[in-house]
Amino acid sequence: MHRFFIPPSSVQGNTLTLTGAQAHQVARVLRMRPGERLIVLDDSGFEFEVRLVAVEPELARGEVVASQPSTGEPRTRITLYQAVLKGDHFELVLQKGTELGVVEFVPLLTERTILRDRQDVEKKRPRWEAIIQEAAEQSHRGRLPALRPPLSFVQACVDVSRTSGVKVIPWEEEAQFRLRDVLRAAQPAAEGLEAALAVSLFIGPEGGLTRDEISVARGYGLVPVTLGPRILRAETAGLSAAAAILYELGDLG
Description:
CATH topology of the largest domain: Alpha/beta knot
Oligomer: single chain
Distance between the termini: 24 Å
Largest sheet: 7 strands, parallel
């Protein structure tokens, strides 16, 4: 069934009302008809199965016939602090990171970030949010990952220092600490690897992070880790690390 994230106000009691672009998509793009069913999500973690009762170009109405908690959300809460990248590479990270299960994205402005103007970054927000929503619908997420305002590297380190959980920053010059070892050390022995865990994951830009930035990160409690002997591109590193984290903590089967 087709899936749509909707404003919570679209469902009143057992009645769904879609207007504007979503009604147009149902009527004109998908050419759905009364009697057909779809899934709607109100970003609460629940999903609602709806039977359409009326479909017009600018208005669609339906009846909620079932509801249940969504099964698409991971227990592990990854916040990905991703340096803003050239071209559409950042969009790729948003799309695939959403599919994998990242719960929050923070655009990061680093020393080697090419696009450093916050206003220019914020101008991309509507497109980035649309990419996240489409990916969340496609991948059966129960909640929309948050897209926070851009932060400088130092601001992000300060932000993370006030949170709990694992705080890692993959770095190509790190050889001692492995991501897996840091994750396992953070898990209380009594809880095992199935317990929920919050992970703050920092990823640098093209050209990588500087030694000064790594020094700053260490000072705020982030742990540099190696992702192995191969050097990954900036748009690959965060996705690879997120997948490894979710697998290690039992969220990828």
